[in-house]
Amino acid sequence: MNNENKISKIIPVMLAFFTMGFVDLVGIATNYVKQDFNLSDTAANSFSVMVFLWFLIFSVPTGILMNKIGRKKTVLLSMVVTFAGLAIPLFIYDEIAMFIVFAFLGIGNTLMQVSLNPLLANMVNKRRLPSYLTLGQFVKAIASFVAPLIAAQAAIYYGNWKLLFTIFMVIDIVAVIYLFMTDIVEPEEKNESSSFKECFSLLGNSVIILFFIGILVHVGIDVGINITAPRLLQERVGIPLVEAGYATSLYFLFRTFGCLSGTFIMARFSPIRFFMVSVLFILAGMTGLYFCRETVTIYICVALIGLGNSNVFSIIFSNALLYMPTRNNEISGLMIMGITGGAIFPVLMGAASDAMGGQIGAVMVLTICVVYLLFLMIKMKKMALE
């Protein structure tokens, strides 16, 4: 495949990565829904469960489905399901409808996360896989970054933050058509379709389970901080949600910058060393959230966490795929099942915040996630030396 032809095929895949970022609107949407329906932290954070619960239920079945219908068709199916979720708020907006919206977004994103990464893996040089996966995460982060901005501007100028769904729905349609019209040849799978038992048995591998939990806590931090950051500003600085919501955009801005820089850095340097630096950035930012009481310092902490967390997923995911390349579909399903952390940790954070009467409870839960990444950092360094 020549470079021009390769680029023409990668562009629609990257646009699909952009639609993958739509799921991150759950952070800012949760805060608006909490405000609109006067919900507690625990009740509001339960909306994230409806997004990320499906990663637990559908990740492994999606890996099996890919063995039957192929990766491209699975990605297309994911974007159709996402479209259905984005369309609902145009007609109905109440608590039940939003649970359904988040459920559709979660199911669609599960299908996409499991299938899109292996689809890209088949199109690029294996040595460059971490770099290309990071590029995909960079494109995804752009959608995550603009979502709070669009919601805020729509709320300020049109009195309707839900216009965000309309804009994303149009982009989703374009992405479906573009990918459908692109001819992507998928190699024949050498392995036969796996059973559920065979897929889950991979978690018995000590390395795979380490990576799985790593994805779990990474997503816990990712979702948790973009829910918690605006609330910290409201609680400690006393600014309204429309202004506090920019903290989420700041997080994704630095996450986007981190992905972009990581694309080039990991093409030249060891991803393991880059992972170590990334985790230390997250640790520094999370530690600061215990003490900061001013807007600027809280923003700095959020920026450090966003920068550090930007490449964690791609490094863990690529290492898992390369560790056992003959089982890519199944491992992809298991790794994406780890995105269930987006359902588990926000609920724990909400309960901790309600119990402690402030967002410090949420920060403590997030700190547990950072401690595990420190542990994984040490383990990955040892594996690289062996």
TrEMBL record:
Keywords, A to Z? Cell membrane, Membrane, Transmembrane, Transmembrane helix
| Protein topology in the membrane | Multi-pass membrane protein
Q: Which residues form the Major facilitator superfamily (MFS) profile domain?
A: 5-384
Q: Name one GO cellular component term.
A: plasma membrane
Pfam families recorded: MFS_1 (PF07690)
Localization per record: Cell inner membrane
Q: Cite the GO molecular-function annotations of the record.
A: transmembrane transporter activity
User: What superkingdom does the record give?
Assistant: Bacteria
Keyword Acyltransferase set for record: no
Principal location listed in the UniProt entry? membrane
Q: What parts of the sequence cross the membrane? A: 12-33, 45-67, 74-93, 99-120, 132-157, 163-181, 202-225, 245-267, 274-291, 297-322, 334-352, 358-378
Q: Which Gene3D superfamilies match?
A: MFS general substrate transporter like domains
Name the PANTHER family for this protein.
L-FUCOSE-PROTON SYMPORTER, PROTEIN TSGA
Q: What is this protein called?
A: MFS transporter
Organism encoding this protein: Jilunia laotingensis
Record lineage:
Bacteria, Pseudomonadati, Bacteroidota, Bacteroidia, Bacteroidales
